[in-house]
TrEMBL record:
Keywords: ATP-binding, Cytoplasm, Ligase, Nucleotide-binding, tRNA processing. Its main location: cytoplasm. InterPro entries: Lysidine-tRNA-synth_C (IPR012796), Rossmann-like_a/b/a_fold (IPR014729), TilS/TtcA_N (IPR011063), tRNA_Ile_lys_synt (IPR012094), tRNA_Ile_lys_synt_N (IPR012795). One of its GO terms (molecular function) is tRNA(Ile)-lysidine synthase activity. Its EC number is 6.3.4.19. This is tRNA(Ile)-lysidine synthase. It catalyses: cytidine(34) in tRNA(Ile2) + L-lysine + ATP = lysidine(34) in tRNA(Ile2) + AMP + diphosphate + H(+). It is found in: Cytoplasm. ATP binds at S27, G28, G29, P30, D31, S32.
């Protein structure tokens, strides 16, 4: 039954073709051992070549070493080439300031790609199963996700990753291992509620099954399948629209707004994501708020505006189009203004920076301990609303040497002409409080009678 189920998945999802060279990720646990055994049974039938990749994370001491020995013996019994690598993952995570789970995953996939290139393989098989699918979807829901995230783990990816046993549940996998006398290794840390995924597996899902729906796994999988079908349809529509209204040129990706503005936001947001992906390769670091900012740029009143996104992406609104670019356009005429609520962060999209501020009492304030780039003012001297904007004609600032025009200040500071419209200025009504990172007005300096201090910076 298990073998036939995997064959069905492989055929329906077109995961494996005759002559494929496949790197199989094998930890020594039930999932990966079951996967390897099934692919080995298929190897002659489909004329596929197998290579095993195993990573010792140096997390579990002797147990991890025994895992490696088990994988070596299993590969020897199946006559499959085996590549084993040992990496101090805890040290890697500490050095690179990443979590243990994320760091381990990054090192595994790096190894898979290295072996894939070394042996000339075209695919990497991973042993994710139906339970993993549900755990992943639950984790994404708790972190916050959209329709794309609710698709769950994909059966195959463009980089050659395939997951042939994704339709098997964990109990069937364990039963298969018993029936074929495979005796896989058991990672005892998987039985401890020490990671978020473990807590979902060991506590949350059993609770849902006991109190709400004993068939929760299958119900969740049906939801994923339905959402994936809907997502596929939407993405197909996005492909059609993108081919009509988007063009990639040397200076970036153009989205022509006449057709763009007639579309539903569900399509428009995905068109922006597609454009960013075409520009920089992926959307890592791009959040929903950034996509919403680009959508806002499609409005006619945003003509000649510019915003900055993470990853060094510049977005320009020109007559008839939005341009996603990696280049600064010299003729871009930006203008921005934001209301500042003391103590709250404000993302300045035109600069790609966040205005951060904190209110402290005078007795808790020590200017000698302030980090570089931090400015401060007497909050009690603010008479109107605080706003952050770029320069306006006639702007002046009161300094210890007298009043100076902002234009003259910029010239004296040798700020390049092309950068002057980008410099953020903090204002109280029409009065200039500070030129961020450069100067503070003496009208807002701290004195002995100051009660509250507003510290601020741009990051």
């Amino acid at each position: 039954m298990v073998f036939d189920s995997v064959l069905k998945t492989i055929a329906e999802k077109n995961l494996i073709e005759t002559g494929d060279k496949i790197v199989v990720a094998v930890s020594g646990g039930p999932d990966s051992v079951c996967l390897l055994h099934i692919l080995h049974r298929l190897s002659n039938q489909m004329d596929i070549s197998l290579f095993v990749a195993h990573l010792n994370h140096q997390i579990r001491g002797l147990e991890a070493h025994l895992d490696s020995l088990y994988v070596m013996k299993l590969c020897d019994s199946l006559n499959i080439p085996c590549f084993i690598k040992s990496i101090d993952v805890p040290k890697y995570c500490e050095d690179n300031k990443v979590g243990l789970e994320d760091g381990a995953r990054m090192q595994r996939y790096k190894m898979f790609n290295e072996i894939k290139a070394k042996v000339g393989a075209n695919k990497v098989a991973i042993g994710h199963n139906k339970n993993d699918q549900v755990e992943t979807v639950l984790m994404r829901i708790m972190r916050g996700t959209g329709l794309q995230g609710l698709r769950g783990i994909e059966y195959k990816r463009n980089d050659g990753i395939i997951r042939p046993i994704l339709d098997l549940n964990r109990k069937d996998i364990e039963k298969y291992c018993v029936e074929h006398e495979l005796y896989p290794r058991i990672d005892k840390t998987n039985l401890e509620s020490i990671y978020s995924r473990n807590k979902i597996r060991l506590e949350l899902i059993p609770y849902i099954q006991k109190e709400f729906n004993e068939n929760f796994i299958d119900s969740a999988i049906r939801m994923v399948q339905n959402l994936r079908s809907d997502s596929d349809y939407i993405l197909n529509e996005v492909d059609k629209e993108y081919s009509e209204l988007a063009r990639a040129y040397e200076d970036g990706v153009y989205l022509f707004v006449e057709k763009f503005n007639t579309l539903h936001n569900a399509i428009k947001s995905r068109l922006v994501i597609r454009g960013i992906r075409d520009l920089v390769g992926d959307v890592n670091g791009i959040e929903k708020k950034h996509i919403d900012e680009v959508l806002e740029m499609s409005k006619d009143d945003k003509l000649n505006k510019k915003i900055n996104l993470p990853r060094g992406i510049f977005v320009y609104r020109k007559q008839g189009y939005i341009l996603l670019s990696k280049s600064i356009l010299e003729d871009s005429n930006i203008e921005y203004e934001y209301t500042i609520e003391p103590g709250k962060d404000v993302f300045i999209s035109e600069l790609g920076k966040t205005f951060k501020s904190e209110i402290v009492s005078l007795e808790n304030f020590n200017s000698d301990e302030l980090k570089k780039g931090l400015q401060f003012l007497d909050l009690g001297k603010i008479k109107s609303s605080i706003r952050l904007r770029n320069r306006r004609q006639g702007d002046k600032i009161r300094l210890s040497g007298g009043t100076k025009k902002i234009k003259e200040l910029f010239i004296g500071l040798k700020i390049p002409r092309e950068n002057r419209d980008k410099v953020p200025i903090l204002v109280d009504g029409d009065s200039v409080v500070a030129v961020c990172d450069y100067r503070m007005s003496i009208d807002y300096k701290i004195e002995e009678k100051t009660e509250k201090v507003l510290m601020f910076t741009l990051e």
